Amino acid sequence: MENQNPLQNGALEGAVGNGGRSGDGSALIFLGTGCSSAVPNAMCLIQPSDPPCQVCSQSLSIPPDRNPNYRCNTSLLIDYCSSDGIRNYIIIDVGKTFREQVLRWFTFHKIPRVDSIVLTHEHADAILGLDDIRAIQPHSPTNDIDPTAIYLTRHSMDSIATKFPYLVQKKLREGQEVRRVAQLDWKIIEEHYDKPFVASGLKFFPLPVMHGEDYLCLGYLFGEKCKVAYISDVSRFPSNTEYVISKNGAGQLDLLILDCLYKKGSFNVHLCLPQTLEAIKRICPKRALLIGMTHEFDHHKDNEFLMEWSEREGIHVQLARDGLRVPIDL
Q1: Span 254-269, mean pLDDT?
Q2: Would you call 44 helix, strand, or coil by DSSP?
Q3: Distance CA 17, CA 330 (A)
C-alpha cells in the first residue's frame, strides 16, 4: 500500500484554506462515503444481472484501496491540530463497517487512536461499530482504562442503552463476570445550534435536519478559520438550520459535506443528486463534497459531470471517496 496513491482524484480534492502539505496541520479523512448497505451491493455480486452492475462487479477485480467505488458507511475522521500543536483525532459516526475502515484507513494515514466520538443519530450505519471501539483502546482485561468521550443526543443515548446495555451500564450486577468491553464516557448534547459543545478541543455546533419527516438527525458545523458543515443523513433542512450554513444567511461555508443517495428521482429519507445540487445552490458554499452514495454512482464518470456542473454554477462540487484526505485550516 505504501507505493500506491489511492487519493489522486482531481483538483477539487485539494486543501481547504491554508491546509498545507500532507502531514502538516489539520485534515479531514473520509473513512466512508457509502450508503447504509455500503458499496458494492451484495445482491449485485451473489445474483448478478445481465449485463452485471459495472460499479459492483469492478470490486472483484480492483483492490478496494484503489477503487473509489468501494464505499463503507459514511464516517469522517477529523485530524485536528490545535494552535499549540496538540493533535487530536475526532470521529463522526462508527457504523457497521468501522473495523474495516480502521484496518484500511487508520493504517494508511497512520492514525494512532481516537480521542472523541461524535454521533449524528442512532441508526445502524452510525453506531453498530461501537463494540469495536475496544479494539483501538489500550488492552485491559479489567477495563481499567480512560474511557473515550462520546457525544450524542438523549434519544440516541436511550436507543444505544437498549442495543448495547453492556457499553452503558456503570456497575456490574452481583456475581456478574468482568468482560472486556469498550470504555465510553457518554456525554449528552442538545439538538440546537445555540448549544455548541467542545470535543477534544474543537467546537461543534449541532445542525438539526430531517431524516424523513418523522425523524430528527444531526449534522455538525465546526472550524473557526475554515467553516465546515457535515450533514450525512438529511431529506429536508429546517429553515433555521439552512440559515446557519448559507451564504445569504449566517455566512458562507468553506466546505459542505452533504448526503447524496441516488442519482435520479427522490427518496423519502435522504437527498438524491437533484435535491443535493439544488440545496448546494441555495446554501452556496465555496466547495462541496458528496457522501452516502449507492452503487448507482460511478466515481470518475459522475465526477466529470459534476466538474461541468461546477464550472457552470460557480461552486466546486465532487463526490468524495473512501480514504480521501483533505488538508484544512481549522
Answers
A1: 97
A2: helix
A3: 9
